[in-house]
Amino acid sequence: MARISTAPVSGARDFLPRDLAPRNRVFRLLRETFERYGYEPLETPAIEHASALEGKYGEEGERLLFRILKNGRDLESAASKLLAEGEAAGRSAGALARRFSEMALRYDLTVPLARVIAARQNDIVMPFRRYQMQPVWRADRPQRGRYREFYQCDVDCVGSRSMLVDAEMAAIHYEAFSALGFDNFVTNISHRGLLDALMEASDVPEGQRGAARVAIDKLDKIGPDGVRAELQKAALPERAVDALLEAISVSGTPESILSSLRPMVRATAQGEVSARELEETFAAMRALGVPERRYALNPSMVRGAEYYTGVIYETTLEGSSLGSLGGGGRYDRLVGMFLGRDIPAVGISFGVDRILVAMEDAGLLAGEAVTTTQALVTLFNAETANAALALASALRAGGVSTELYPDPKGVGQQLGFANRRGIPLAFIVGPDEAARGEATLRDLRSGEQRSVTLGEAAAAALAALAEME
């Protein structure tokens, strides 16, 4: 019999309790931030119709879809039919995969949201604010901070064209990353139409603008010289390359950058609209109290998803090679792909896995609790079991997460168990303590201990826990 691998598949992970403690804290802080802004929870199935996901993410995203093949007899029957009819010959692998896969795992949470809006439009009151915290899957190459199965935490507002909502997205990024403890983050902001207007004004031929976007998207990795080489390789006219690189390299405050670029893009159809919408967004962000040091206008920003139509966002850490920890943008036409009429929408996403890597690098997880258990009640022997059970119940009723050791082993062994688990407090109930209706409360971090009665045990534990924070 072949040996069964016990390792998770590449790009997926097992999470032990000590791994989940910091993850759950991140989820809690994000959820609290979202709900302060009036966003409500939504969940969608992991499996979507493949046709609902196809054509929404660009060529690269299309390759990263995890497709679910027809199973059992359905797959065998479909393959036999193709072979019998000679249809398999000459078909690309991608075409055959699409023929055999009617379903796929969701690639993100935005397209499923658009599908829900289209399907449940009569049940939803607009503008609809929702947050969603669920795993997604991408057939990507695993690397540090990037996995094939990972969580996204999304916030979206559907049904409003107001730039006040766009500014709200940047404010949520600011509040969330501040709450997580980061002090070196910047939310880069641009507009999907601004780069298009700059390419038009730079005389980049329309048929070569897709290649230009791909090259510019690599700016952080390959630098201006590398982007120039990529643009030249794409056969852009040298005059256009010079003008475009000069435009996307403008730096300064958002106001000064827009002032510099406005004469260049004013004559284009979308240039003036992009500049005005960015100005409105930045003005609203200031009114919301987002510090100017926490955001920047970055004309070179692309963001790969095809569905973005307006303001786009990407939050990164200064001096970090992890890349984007969160991003998003306005997508006013995505719902229309399902509904037949456009409904405006804007949203952002947080990459929890990269955020946790960044928090570890920054020392923000030091001292993080590795268990949800706050106190262990020891079991001395069978005669003290009732006293131990009564104490555990009193602690739980008082708001202390409590675990009762189930076997009457030596006290030292039980305290060692608590230390290995990272449980901060222990209550020792021996025969003498049980007879007096007391227990010994030991702080396992400092080693200090004192006697407490059953009635005061919960309050004493909560006070000790508060001192540890």
Main sheet characteristics = 8 strands, mixed
The level-1 CATH class of the largest domain: Alpha Beta
Helical content band:
40-55%
Shape: elongated
- CATH homologous superfamily grouping of the largest domain: Bira Bifunctional Protein, Domain 2
CATH architecture of the largest domain: 2-Layer Sandwich
Count every beta strand, where a strand is a DSSP E run of 2 or more residues. Answer: 16
- CATH-derived topology of the largest domain: BirA Bifunctional Protein, domain 2
Give structural notes.
The chain is an alpha+beta fold and 469 residues long. The protein has an eight-stranded mixed beta sheet with strand order 1-5-6-11-10-9-7-8. It has a five-stranded mixed beta sheet with strand order 13-12-14-15-16, sandwiched between helices. A three-stranded antiparallel beta sheet has the order 2-4-3. The two termini are 52 Å apart. The chain is built from 19 helices and 16 strands. The longest helix is centred in the N-terminal third of the chain and has 20 residues, at 17-36. Helix 8 (192-201) runs antiparallel to helix 11 and helix 12 (254-265) packs antiparallel against helix 13 (271-287).
What is the topological layout?
Blueprint (H helix, E strand, L loop, with lengths): L16 H20 L3 E2 L5 E3 H4 L4 H6 L3 E2 L3 H14 L7 H8 L2 E3 L4 H10 L8 E10 L11 E10 L4 H17 L5 E7 H10 L7 H8 L2 H15 L4 H11 L5 H12 L5 H17 L7 E3 L13 E7 L8 E5 L5 H4 L5 E7 H10 L13 E3 L7 H13 L4 E3 L6 H11 L3 E4 L2 H6 L1 E6 L5 E5 L3 H12 L1
Parallel strand pairs: 1-5, 7-8, 12-13, 12-14
Antiparallel strand pairs: 2-4, 3-4, 5-6, 6-11, 7-9, 9-10, 10-11, 14-15, 15-16
Helix pairs in contact: 1-7, 7-13, 8-11, 8-13, 9-10, 10-11, 12-13
